């Protein structure tokens, strides 16, 4: 069975995690497949948006605990394996945000621990309104420290800390209110709503979206003054793009742009 499926249509790449018997856990193979696919998509100028989803009952249940436990069977008790595992996971999560194309998580069932981290790392997220989200490692004695990084960059700090320390699951509605997802929809509408968002993004000038995504994450780490100076330079470069000139002229002339 192929652990990660890719389907391209109308400038949108759909990546489907395909390990339903393990609730699409982020095993070594899954991490490698995701990172490899993201690297490929980053170089593919025909793709303007990405949808990430899972097969079976869940979006993603986090790390593969059986595999992690097997990693203990080394002379160092698993220290080197665990360090490498979390580094590889962090690199994959960051790759989501560094590729030019916006990535939309299409979430259903559960998104727990590193699976919740995966949702938080995606640029956008739409969830089935029955989905539950949690960073519940504390329930088995493992504080979700790496998922915490992405989670605290999405939702209020006190809400994140409560989830991390109690292991409490939140509903899709609460996830939307906290800012973890963009919106929740009925299961019958999940694929359609996600596709509509992806195709809306894919219809825009790809170079502008690429520039904007990179700037979005860069300015978030700056002071307000630094961010304005940086964003101003980005706007200048964007204005000098020939297709941007065409887009503005088309708007003023009330016609569709002829982008190259």
TrEMBL record:
Gene3D superfamilies: 2-enoyl-CoA Hydratase, Chain A, domain 1, Lyase 2-enoyl-coa Hydratase, Chain A, domain 2
Any single Pfam family the record assigns to this protein: ECH_1
A molecular function GO annotation: hydro-lyase activity
Protein's GO biological process: fatty acid metabolic process
UniProt entry tagged with the keyword GTP-binding: no
Keyword Transit peptide found: yes
SUPFAM superfamilies reported in the protein's UniProt record: ClpP/crotonase
Alphabetized UniProt keyword annotations: Fatty acid metabolism, Lipid metabolism, Transit peptide
Biological function: May play a role in fatty acid biosynthesis and insulin sensitivity.
Family: Belongs to the enoyl-CoA hydratase/isomerase family.
Protein known as: Enoyl-CoA hydratase domain-containing protein 3, mitochondrial
């Amino acid at each position: 069975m192929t652990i990660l499926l890719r389907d391209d249509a109308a400038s949108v790449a759909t990546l489907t995690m395909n390990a339903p018997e393990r609730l699409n856990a982020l095993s070594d193979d899954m991490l490698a497949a995701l990172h490899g696919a993201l690297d490929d998509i980053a170089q593919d100028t025909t793709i303007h948006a990405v949808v990430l989803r899972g097969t079976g009952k869940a979006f993603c249940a986090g790390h593969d605990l059986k595999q992690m436990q097997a990693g203990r069977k080394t002379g160092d008790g698993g220290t080197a394996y665990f360090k490498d595992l979390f580094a590889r996971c962090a690199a994959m999560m960051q790759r989501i945000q560094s590729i030019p194309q916006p990535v939309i998580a299409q979430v259903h069932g559960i998104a727990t621990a590193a699976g919740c981290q995966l949702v938080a790392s995606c640029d956008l997220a739409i969830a089935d309104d029955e989905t539950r989200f949690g960073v519940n490692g504390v329930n088995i004695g493992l504080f979700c420290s790496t998922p915490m990084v992405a989670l605290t960059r999405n939702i209020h700090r006190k809400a994140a800390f409560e989830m991390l320390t109690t292991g409490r699951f939140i509903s899709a509605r609460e996830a939307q209110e906290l800012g973890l997802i963009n919106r929740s929809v009925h299961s019958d509408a999940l694929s359609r709503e996600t596709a509509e968002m992806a195709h809306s993004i894919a219809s825009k000038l790809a170079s502008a979206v690429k520039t904007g995504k990179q700037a979005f994450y860069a300015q978030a780490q700056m002071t307000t003054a630094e961010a304005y100076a940086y964003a101003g330079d980005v706007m200048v470069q964007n204005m000098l793009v020939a297709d941007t000139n065409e887009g503005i002229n088309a708007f003023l002339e009330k016609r569709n742009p002829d982008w190259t």
